[in-house]
Every structure is written in structure tokens, then in C-alpha cells.
Write a structure and sequence with these properties.
Elements: H1 2-6, H2 8-13, E1 20-22, H3 26-36, E2 42-44, H4 48-53, E3 58-62, E4 68-73, H5 78-88
Parallel strand pairs: 1-2
Antiparallel strand pairs: 3-4
Length: about 90
């Protein structure tokens, strides 16, 4: 999450919304966000999101029509993600 925060301005300049999602409690999210000084939202998942997109450390790039255009398992490289976000402009 800290890596996303480090590049948050670059994501925002590309009109990309960064969200963190997990089944942790709201209180856990708040503490984690405060500890890492995150400026993007963390979403508490009741299992619905995990059921749709899968579980584990995954990154999904979803275009403005709601179509998943890129999936990365594990910790992504922000440079690669930013390139993928740039490529979404063609959709």
C-alpha cells in the first residue's frame, strides 16, 4: 500500500482511482491508513468483492465502463501499472 501512496499523485494525474480492499474491519483499516498515512480509500469487503475478483494480493485495473483490463497477482510494479493505466486511454 505504501508503494501506491508513494506514487499517488502520478495515479491521480492519470485520473486513476486507487482503492485498497480487504475483509479487515473498519477499525483495522483506519489504523492501517493512519499508520501508513494513506490518502486513498480502504474498502471493507464482506466477501462480495473477493467473490467477484478473487482473493490474495491482486491488483485490477478497471476501465470507466467497468471492464477489467489488467490483473496482476502479487505486488505490482508501479511503473508497469502506470503504463497500463496510460494504455486504458485508448478504450
Amino acid at each position: 500500500m505504501k508503494a501506491f501512496q508513494n506514487d499517488i499523485e502520478r495515479f491521480e494525474k492519470m485520473n486513476a482511482q486507487v482503492l485498497g480492499v480487504s475483509t479487515d474491519s473498519l477499525e483495522t483499516h483506519e489504523a492501517f491508513s493512519k499508520q501508513l498515512k494513506l490518502s486513498f480509500p480502504l474498502v471493507v469487503d464482506d466477501g462480495t468483492i473477493r467473490g467477484i475478483y478473487g482473493s490474495g494480493r491482486m491488483t485490477h485495473l478497471i476501465d470507466q465502463q467497468g471492464i477489467v483490463r489488467y490483473v496482476h497477482k502479487g505486488m505490482p510494479d508501479n511503473e508497469r501499472l502506470l503504463q497500463e493505466v496510460e494504455s486504458l486511454k485508448s478504450y
